[in-house]
């Protein structure tokens, strides 16, 4: 029995009852002989409430103070959780990110972990205690200021601690039963995945799956820490994410799942002179505005005009900024006009089996075509195909693809949501 | 223009509006050329809400985790206050007790400050920033754990920082206009005191006045830091507490004020053998139970029985514990019975002028007698007389004494409460 890191999200500790339920589960793991380190998020809506307060006193809250504010949320949940565990007769100590040795860079609101020095955690464990650690936060290496890792950062805290402590598994407790072959809200027959490789999980996370964040999976892959995503509302096995399949029954599927994303918009730069350096100028302007773009497509140039169109997708939230940046650079780049379209959606098919099954791409397009879905952009990786369609077509497209690749479960019963339905 | 420490209590920063109002006042002081260090409490009822949460998960929350929990409150208010100041165009940085160098012992929930090493505060000030510090909290010297100083601890934080930074004044902002000659809720004609000595303020605080805590005044006296208690809702001068009178108009009054306290109970140990060591045995039993007692009176022994009664007062909250401790020691001590009475009140007259005006004591008892108030216990110091009466008589007694010593103001208008009435 080795060391286990467990991470509980805000919906699992939304109120006193939730905290007591989670405490019982933690004590269970301890009784089973594990050394237990718990990473906890802020209770329920605490973070949103704090953000709301900040906006009331200042329209643009500053980075350092904003981090100081938000980290109060985990401080509350971790202290309460430690108390609840003690109340069950077991010893527990809570630690802030700083006390736990989570060292980050100085980029407030979205700091990156650069080192983990969990000396105090190790001592607490050696003394037989359960260690509770605040997720989402750290301390900056140079200034010793409190930092936060950005939304979803608690998962990263958990994986980073698991790596630093050489844990045998990092359990991510959430309000769903695991990672599914598609979003169960869209595809009723979506199945829980028993095992998925780091690579496929990375592609799913990059393509719109919300269960695990890309950064967290990346960290786990780098340090080879198996992740077990499971429900805090049931005792069921969830989804294992690791290098090698675990358990007897598990074998690698050709296709892991279908992800979709309707949070992106498309910008088309119309009438770009078809000569070297034009695309570079466009994407330099966008990159200088610190906007991450996703897919890019350049149309074939019309021979008669010598002009072409370039389209790319980006988060809707950054649409305004991108348009402004391009308008400002219009004189230098030399294009006719910009078109902005936020009524798009992206559907992605992910699976390592694609590499060795050349028919997958054809089947994918066939399924979309049969469902009457029009494709606007295409992009691929070795283990993923993504297409952009009209936003209205996304749900239908996801269901069609899911069914075409034999991912549908036999019964609707397979999809079980947790208690809060959040 | 020197360095000023300002402390704002929870009612001054109860909501976003309060925080913005306080931010303006802080910026004002900065504009006037001061270096400004601000100590802030948790917003409004935050601490009570956190205590409530703790009680929901554990009937007896443990010290270390309880401190971790409660300190989240100041973290929220100080970050918001720093944001609000920045929004007014001034630089501000917030610091936890630990970051501010507030070093304490390890007694959780009521730690004592043993050192203040405000290096980061000094740096922030030197860089032209306003420093915002979390009140009520510190970090333990040996274990580096978060500690709290107990209720009212933010005032102590402010005075301790003022001492460590050699501030010219420690301003305590509250929701009343200053220290009054009596509780204005009881005595409508109570007057605001312009200046009061540390000694008289210590006696008032020990006798039931709630505006400043005894520990905070003691600290200020030891390091000779003038305290200015004033309202955060007005620009009026409040009460100066210092060694020497300040300002032209201020001269030392014979009597500073009348304090009262109805939070105590009286225990009478009946039928104690009148022989050496009996009283010692009684108070050893009480002290071993960690109960602080206030007044003690031993009746004259009845010659016929050789037995006497011993009465003492103590906080009501500790009554049960004291009775239990005495019952347990009954065999060793040898008394007949115990009487418990929580319907008592204490009235105290405080003033350094007592030392040189021998008529004060007589006038005090005359005033009580004229008001028909019966006296049960008496205790005195060089600058204070206290009596215990029936609880029902307390308000009447306070008014009578206040009037008899010429403390009544000419009009009711002098008593001004702040906006929230809290």
Automatic annotation (TrEMBL), chains A, B:
| This protein's record includes keyword Amino-acid biosynthesis | yes
Q: Where does the record place the ACT domain?
A: 267-343, 349-422
One Gene Ontology biological process: homoserine biosynthetic process
Sites binding substrate sit at 47, 74
* Pathway listed: Amino-acid biosynthesis; L-threonine biosynthesis; L-threonine from L-aspartate: step 1/5; Amino-acid biosynthesis; L-methionine biosynthesis via de novo pathway; L-homoserine from L-aspartate: step 1/3; Amino-acid biosynthesis; L-lysine biosynthesis via DAP pathway; (S)-tetrahydrodipicolinate from L-aspartate: step 1/4
Q: Which InterPro entries match?
A: AceGlu_kinase-like_sf (IPR036393), ACT-like_dom_sf (IPR045865), ACT_Aspartokinase (IPR054352), ACT_dom (IPR002912), AKii-LysC-BS (IPR041740), Asp/Glu/Uridylate_kinase (IPR001048), Asp_kin_monofn (IPR005260), Asp_kinase (IPR001341)
According to the lineage, what is the superkingdom?
Bacteria
Which residues does the record give as ATP binding sites? Answer: 7-10, 174-175, 185, 210-211
From the UniProt record, list the reaction(s) this protein catalyses: L-aspartate + ATP = 4-phospho-L-aspartate + ADP
Instruction: List the Pfam families.
Output: AA_kinase (PF00696), ACT_9 (PF22468)
Gene Ontology CC: one annotated term: cytosol
In its UniProt record, a GO molecular function of this protein is: ATP binding
Look up the EC number in the record and give it: 2.7.2.4
Q: Which UniProt keywords apply?
A: Amino-acid biosynthesis, ATP-binding, Diaminopimelate biosynthesis, Kinase, Lysine biosynthesis, Nucleotide-binding, Transferase
Its function? Catalyzes the phosphorylation of the beta-carboxyl group of aspartic acid with ATP to yield 4-phospho-L-aspartate, which is involved in the branched biosynthetic pathway leading to the biosynthesis of amino acids lysine, threonine, isoleucine and methionine.
- Family under the similarity heading: Belongs to the aspartokinase family.
| PANTHER family associated with the record | ASPARTATE KINASE, ASPARTOKINASE
Q: What name appears for this protein in its UniProt entry? A: Aspartokinase
Q: Which organism is it from?
A: Streptomyces filamentosus (Streptomyces roseosporus)
């Amino acid at each position: 029995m080795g060391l286990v890191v467990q991470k509980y999200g805000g919906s699992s500790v939304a109120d006193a009852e939730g905290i007591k339920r989670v405490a019982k589960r933690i004590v269970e793991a301890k009784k089973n002989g594990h050394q237990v380190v718990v990473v906890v998020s802020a209770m329920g809506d605490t973070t949103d409430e704090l953000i709301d307060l900040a906006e009331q006193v200042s329209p643009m809250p500053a980075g350092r103070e904003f981090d100081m504010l938000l980290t109060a949320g985990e401080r509350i949940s971790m202290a309460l959780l430690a108390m609840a565990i003690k109340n069950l007769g077991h010893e527990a100590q809570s630690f802030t990110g700083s006390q736990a040795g989570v060292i980050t860079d100085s980029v407030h609101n979205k700091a990156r972990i650069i080192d983990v020095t969990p000396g105090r955690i190790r001592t607490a464990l050696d003394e037989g205690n359960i260690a509770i650690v605040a997720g989402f936060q750290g301390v900056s290496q140079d200034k010793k200021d409190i930092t936060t890792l950005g939304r979803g950062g608690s998962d990263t805290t958990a994986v980073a601690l698991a790596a630093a402590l050489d844990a045998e598994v990092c359990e991510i407790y959430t309000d769903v039963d695991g990672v599914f072959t598609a979003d169960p809200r869209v595809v009723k027959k979506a199945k829980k995945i028993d095992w998925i490789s780091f690579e496929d999980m990375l592609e799913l996370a990059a393509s719109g799956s919300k269960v695990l964040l890309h950064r967290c999976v990346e960290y786990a892959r780098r340090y080879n820490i198996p992740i077990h995503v499971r429900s805090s509302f049931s005792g069921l096995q969830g989804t294992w994410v690791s290098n090698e399949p675990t358990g007897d029954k598990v074998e690698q599927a050709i296709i892991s799942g279908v992800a979709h994303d309707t949070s992106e918009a498309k910008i088309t730069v119309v009438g770009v002179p078809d000569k070297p350096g034009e695309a570079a100028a466009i994407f330099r302007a966008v990159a200088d505005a610190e906007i991450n773009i996703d897919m890019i497509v350049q149309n074939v140039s019309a021979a008669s005009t010598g002009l072409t169109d370039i389209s790319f997708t980006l988060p809707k939230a950054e649409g305004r900024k991108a348009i402004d940046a391009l308008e400002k650079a219009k004189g230098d780049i030399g294009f006719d006009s910009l078109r902005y379209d936020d009524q798009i959606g992206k559907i992605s098919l992910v699976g390592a089996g694609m590499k060795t099954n050349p028919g997958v791409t054809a089947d994918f397009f066939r399924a979309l075509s049969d469902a009457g879905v029009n494709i606007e952009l295409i992009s691929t990786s070795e283990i993923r195909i993504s297409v952009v369609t009209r936003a209205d077509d996304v749900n239908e497209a996801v269901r069609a693809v899911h069914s075409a690749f034999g991912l549908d479960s036999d019964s609707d019963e397979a999809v079980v949501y947790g208690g809060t339905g959040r």
